[in-house]
């Protein structure tokens, strides 16, 4: 499960996971679904869902630490700056034969291109927020978010 998806696969996920809308209730549903998955798996994760930098949902499950909140902030900053998932940003650098740190020279205390941050995209609107999970290996954080977004999208489309 630690194999990195390709940049093309990550771009396809972002194209697929465009929501019909994103309300406070949607934030609650998304965050609650992530909590349920985390509890079911005994995962030591922290979760945040925000819209336009307004935190709508936050949870820290057993085993999560304050460091996870720092990782959440750094992943979210990367998503906001680049408009793509934090895993996409890191994978783009890897596929270009470099690292995120070497390529952009950004403050590592503010930005990190590790998986787990994903833009909340509304079809025909664009990015409206970010969902972030921290606590697992980065590809697993990313996959957890993608699974929950797929479920939210399916519920919206009925």
Describe the protein's architecture and organization.
The protein is of the alpha+beta class and 158 residues long. The protein has one domain (7-157): Beta-Lactamase. The protein has six helices and five strands; from the N terminus they run αβαββαααββα. It has helices at 7-16, 24-41, 66-82, 86-95, 100-104, 138-157; strands at residues 18-19, 46-51, 54-60, 117-122, 126-134. A five-stranded mixed β-sheet has the order 1-4-5-2-3. The mean pLDDT is 96.
Could you list some keywords that capture this structure?
single chain; 158 residues; alpha+beta; Beta-Lactamase; 6 helices; 5 strands; globular
Can you summarize this structure?
The protein has helices spanning 7-16, 24-41, 66-82, 86-95, 100-104, 138-157; strands at 18-19, 46-51, 54-60, 117-122, 126-134. It has 158 residues and is α+β, with helices and mostly antiparallel strands. The protein has a five-stranded mixed sheet.
């Amino acid at each position: 499960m630690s194999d990195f998806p390709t940049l093309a696969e990550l771009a396809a996920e972002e194209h697929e996971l465009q929501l019909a809308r994103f309300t406070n209730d949607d934030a609650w549903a998304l965050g609650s679904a992530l909590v349920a998955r985390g509890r079911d798996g005994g995962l030591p994760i922290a979760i945040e869902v925000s819209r336009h930098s307004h935190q709508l949902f936050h949870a820290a499950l057993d085993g999560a630490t304050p460091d996870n909140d720092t990782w959440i902030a750094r992943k979210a900053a990367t998503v906001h700056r680049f408009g793509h998932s934090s895993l996409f940003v890191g994978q783009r650098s890897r596929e270009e034969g470099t690292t995120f740190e070497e390529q952009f020279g950004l403050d590592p205390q503010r930005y990190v291109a590790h998986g787990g941050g994903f833009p909340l995209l509304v079809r025909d609107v664009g990015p409206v927020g970010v969902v972030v999970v921290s606590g697992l290996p980065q590809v697993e954080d990313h996959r957890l978010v993608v699974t929950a977004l797929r479920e939210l999208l399916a519920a919206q489309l009925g």
